[in-house]
Amino acid sequence: MSHAVAQVLEPLVTADFGPVGVILPVSAHFHASAPRPYTDPRIRKRLHYDLTARRYRTGRNATAQQKSEGLSHFRDLTISGCTLAPTASSNVYLTTPIERDRFPSSCLFYSHALEPELAKSPVATVARLLWRRAPDIIFIMADTLASRKYFDNIYIPVGLIILGCAITKREWVPYAALLSLALGAYKYNSMQIKKVLKPDAFQEFELKEKTIISHNVAIYRFNLPSEKSILGLPIGQHISIGANCPQPDGTTKEIVRSYTPISGDHQPGYFDLLIKSYPTGNISKYLASMKVGQLLKVKGPKGAFVYTPNMVRHFGMIAGGTGITPMLQIIRAVIRGRPTGDKTEIDLIFANVTPQDILLKEDLDTLAKEDSGFRVHYVLDKPPAGWTGGVGYVTADMITNLLPKPADDVKLLLCGPPPMVSGLKKTAESLGFKKARPVSKLEDQVFAF
Known about the structure:
- With 449 residues, this protein is of the alpha/beta class.
- It has helices spanning 2-13, 41-44, 59-68, 122-131, 159-168, 173-191, 282-289, 324-336, 361-370, 396-402, 418-430; strands at residues 21-22, 25-26, 31-32, 47-50, 55-58, 77-79, 82-86, 92-95, 107-111, 137-141, 156-157, 194-195, 203-214, 217-223, 229-230, 238-246, 252-259, 270-276, 295-302, 314-320, 345-352, 374-380, 390-391, 410-415, 446-448.
């Protein structure tokens, strides 16, 4: 019976079913032979679809590629006349003597034998009840190689569930249809991006890793509840961090401070904070003392600024120290939006004390090199010999020469130490920008984070 089912399903497998796929373990036997050396003449004659190069290779070329990856042999898996050849990563390429145009160019295969953990999955358990046996092989299909998505490690069109039942036992079709609906609903729900932030309630997130940037600067990566979770933080807004910090009198006090992650919602599963530790900084010292696995209390979003594409023609930005974090969020959002029509120009003045204090300089330089609409200008209070950038405090002349002139479609963004921001507000007003409010609003021409 399994062989008969395989013969019926084999032509269907060689078609690209696209995004309708969910889950189906195909009830068809495969046979694994002993490992064969690359000199096997039968292997040379077969046609391989190379998923990395995205083109077809002959068996001889595929062998050369696999040798370069350090493999010494591979195993043939056969299903109804088709051959599956696994690579080191357990991915299995479809290989068969049939015509090239019958190959499913976006079809990737996993075998139950190579992925034993699948046998313990909820899907495999349901499959055993449905098919009265463990699934031998699982097919994975997607629209394109670049857009392939994994769900419980396996994908297949739900139609094959009903078709398989119709071939084997017609009375199972209603149950197969019900299972297909349940799996489809589960897939839809599991693939939804989930926002985790709550504006009025702290939640705890685990510290996954800490990357030391300098003696007093580090990037802290915190896990979100799942790989599909995002903070749900609009571009330009920040989060509040709370911690019980020790006080000089020996007591502890809950301190809350605001920070802007340097990661975004386009990077699900985690968020990154760039933190500079100060001797008198309660939260920064607390974070510096955190160990991997410890929890941090976070709530949000907070803030009055929300970036939308083309909200202005030109941004002028002035940042000092860790004040670069909200600017970086906006810069990255603008550049990501170029393909969809975001034409916003950005000029950034980034002020620091020494070259060693310039945070994320490599990232900023790369962005400026790759995008002609973004320019970065560095200013140092204590420059080294041969420094060609700005020197000292950010002055009116620097703003005039490096940033856009005041206009209705221009916005000036400020972020840095309070004395610096306070002085820049007055300087901007003297240059013709509208007077900044004590607490900035989104519509303000001069906005201080």
